[in-house]
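Sat 14:20. Reprocessing the chain from the morning session after the first attempt stalled halfway. Input below, unchanged.
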Amino acid sequence: MGSLPSRYRHRFATNSQEHLVLSDEAAENDMYTAVALCNIPPDRNSEDTIYIGERLNIISEEGDMLRVSSTSTGIESFVLRNCVSKVYNRWLFEGITRRNAEELLMLPQNHTGSFLIRKSQTCPGSYSLSIRQNGGHRCNIKHYRILQLHNGWFCIHPTHPFSTLNQLVDYYSRTANGILCRLTEPCLFSDMNTTPEAISSPIVIQRPNLNWREVTRSMIQRQPKRTHEESLVSEGLRETVNAYIYFTEESCSED
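Finished this time. Tokens:
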């Protein structure tokens, strides 16, 4: 099982301290993106607010502060490091808690099978797989511990070890086999560029100023077009009513 090919481009390896690190190629090219873990500022009253789940570019890092820019608005801000997570391979989220994982997966753009992987808070050296499943009007977030074995391999169940997290993700993308559901897509970021489609003006249906009890045959009979005043009965309606009256009269005469 551990030799399954991976669909993902960048591979991971383990160092002597049993920490997950990027491959040399990915590390050299800083192959990661970043995502906001909360609304910044939290009051959400500012025009330059960064929203939870929004994709960010990290411009610089100075201690506990990061200088970031929104990929959708281009606005730059200084934020605390713990308000942002670096994301590798689209699904490995750095420095997030169980609660952060649930809040991100609960965003409306995610669905059944959306997932992410994070370092375990309760078991150092291990990781956690968080998966979303929709059910009716509710959605469920389930967490699974990914154990890192002495040989550096990873497993959720001891009978299915994998040499890399990529292979683990690839396997559970094909089959649920003991977990909540099959993995479908990494946790999606909010696309703040998406603007609501222009909503066309509703069709206005005007109630006719016509009382059918007051309709007379003279009103229905064909008349020349008025130049300054519109007829209360349209041409098509006039033809229809004429036909109705004709057939009604014929039917009455037969009785």
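Helices lie at 24-28, 98-105, 165-174, 217-220, 235-254.
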